[in-house]
Amino acid sequence: MRVWVPLDAAARALGADAVAEALGREFTVTRNGTRGMVWLEPLVEVERDGVRHGYGPVGPEDAASVAQAIRSGGDHPLALGPVEELPWMKAQTRLTFARVGVIDPLSVEEYQAHGGLEGLRRAIGMGSEPIVAEVVESGLRGRGGAGFPTGIKWKTVAAAAAAAERKYIVCNADEGDSGSFADRMLMEGDPLVLIEGMAIAGIAVGAVQGYVYIRSEYPDAIRLMEAAIGKARQAGILGQSVLGSAHAYDMEVRVGAGAYVCGEETSLLNSLEGKRGVVRAKPPIPALEGFLGRPTVVNNVISLASVPWILAHGGAEYAKLGIGRSKGTIPIQIAGNVRHGGLFEAAFGMSLRQIVEEIGGGTASGRPVKAAQVGGPLGSYIPHWNFDVPFGYEELATKEGLLGHAGITVFDDSADMLKLARFAMEFCAVESCGKCTPCRIGSVRGVETIDRIAQGDETGIPILTDLCNTMKWGSLCALGGFAPFPVMSALTHFPDDFRGRSEPRKEAAE
Ligand SMILES: Cc1cc2nc3c(=O)[nH]c(=O)nc-3n(C[C@H](O)[C@H](O)[C@H](O)COP(=O)(O)O)c2cc1C
Ligand code: SF4
């Protein structure tokens, strides 16, 4: 009997290793990625008659009784029934995450048995221009934050220089946004799909070398990506002749030291070159002068991992999903004060209300939802009365919102929005690379001004607004340029949290 216990970092943090060890004394245990239902981790699965049945959350103390239930086929209080039938799973459209949680992440055989390498094989037969055209047709936009069309970026790099010149593929796996974990879950659960996506990008633009820049806080993802690259080399997916073709492509992992700003693409490139992670002025754009001054594709993990499906099924099929200019699926990460947190992949277009209240099940505290911050620490706070906004790039922008990396952090009505605004400014002050004045100095002054308002000095409110405008329009990159969004959204939608404050408030938001 085959039993699965996740190796995902979240499941491991909750005792999955001890569970795997206990069950491994009786059964053949395979370590898989997570299904994304973090509140059910560690989620143990057992296959019966070709159907995978779940038990969760299985702590180390439950392992013996779960083993007994698996052995006897009997009932257990933690039994969940067929995993694919759980409402969280059934409501998804899992394209990029199709294999995550399903296969052994390091098995090339299982990867292929579940549709892996179909995209790369097709890409090899197509050549550069048609691959780029397929990605353009899919409407795929960068999942790292800015939402720039991936196909157009590739087209620029493909056309950038003579074929003989070196070009690079750089995968941005810095994933610094609070409440974001899609990149990590993908790299831990299906690293081969990222390798396949990067190899396709290499063939498309004429690059033979790639790098995955992973934050040092992700030791499991680093280990699994490195192991998967080794397996891919052995299987001939990487190397001098990709899958026996005339194309060469290889790649390696580079570990960042853990600065939020190193997720910004030019800062990342500096760090990758061994320099201090300071933002570079654009132009030149990395597509023309990137790593070591050469034309470079810099794409997020999810952008690159979405490409194999697009190549295997066609850009037009992908573009059928979604709304407006937000095509395809988006792995939404639901976190914060929420009952059911985790990763949920769906076509663009669900309302924020559906995501927070139906999928996420409302707050964990049971109190009313006050707001959700969408798009990481630089994203706006969307108040609950605007939750009918559809989840899409332009749609969220109508509410001054940012889709970003699609992380959602939920807050209940006890949240103190002034404290959250202060956190945004403080975060910017701590993480600023220091290159430009509005961000370096403005964020420090922003913290001081919010502290004045907290002491009841409301003359600080117009100063804060003015400061936010200066940072928004005068900063060199989006760290200083977007920090005003959470601040101003908190101030605009929840002015009462900024007025009439003479005493320190309860520490509810912390
Ligand atoms: C301060 C800052 C931090 C960023 N952090 C990340 C990150 O952790 N991961 C990421 O993919 N993009 C991040 N970005 C966006 C990148 O600069 C860039 O747009 C992205 O890597 C491009 O890939 P994509 O087109 O596939 O999204 C960040 C941007 C800024 C300004
Ligand atoms: S906005 Fe901040 S992080 Fe960006 S370049 Fe200026 S100082 Fe550096």
UniProtKB/TrEMBL annotation:
<dbReference type="GO" id="GO:0010181">
    <property type="term" value="F:FMN binding"/>
</dbReference>
<dbReference type="Pfam" id="PF10589">
    <property type="entry name" value="NADH_4Fe-4S"/>
</dbReference>
<dbReference type="GO" id="GO:0046872">
    <property type="term" value="F:metal ion binding"/>
</dbReference>
<keyword id="KW-0408">Iron</keyword>
<dbReference type="Pfam" id="PF01512">
    <property type="entry name" value="Complex1_51K"/>
</dbReference>
<dbReference type="InterPro" id="IPR037225">
    <property type="entry name" value="Nuo51_FMN-bd_sf"/>
</dbReference>
<dbReference type="InterPro" id="IPR019575">
    <property type="entry name" value="Nuop51_4Fe4S-bd"/>
</dbReference>
<keyword id="KW-0479">Metal-binding</keyword>
<dbReference type="InterPro" id="IPR037207">
    <property type="entry name" value="Nuop51_4Fe4S-bd_sf"/>
</dbReference>
<dbReference type="InterPro" id="IPR011538">
    <property type="entry name" value="Nuo51_FMN-bd"/>
</dbReference>
<feature type="domain" description="NADH-ubiquinone oxidoreductase 51kDa subunit iron-sulphur binding">
    <location>
        <begin position="418"/>
        <end position="463"/>
    </location>
</feature>
<protein>
    <submittedName>
        <fullName>Formate dehydrogenase beta subunit</fullName>
    </submittedName>
</protein>
<dbReference type="GO" id="GO:0008137">
    <property type="term" value="F:NADH dehydrogenase (ubiquinone) activity"/>
</dbReference>
<keyword id="KW-0411">Iron-sulfur</keyword>
<keyword id="KW-0004">4Fe-4S</keyword>
<dbReference type="InterPro" id="IPR001949">
    <property type="entry name" value="NADH-UbQ_OxRdtase_51kDa_CS"/>
</dbReference>
<dbReference type="GO" id="GO:0051539">
    <property type="term" value="F:4 iron, 4 sulfur cluster binding"/>
</dbReference>
<comment type="similarity">
    <text>Belongs to the complex I 51 kDa subunit family.</text>
</comment>
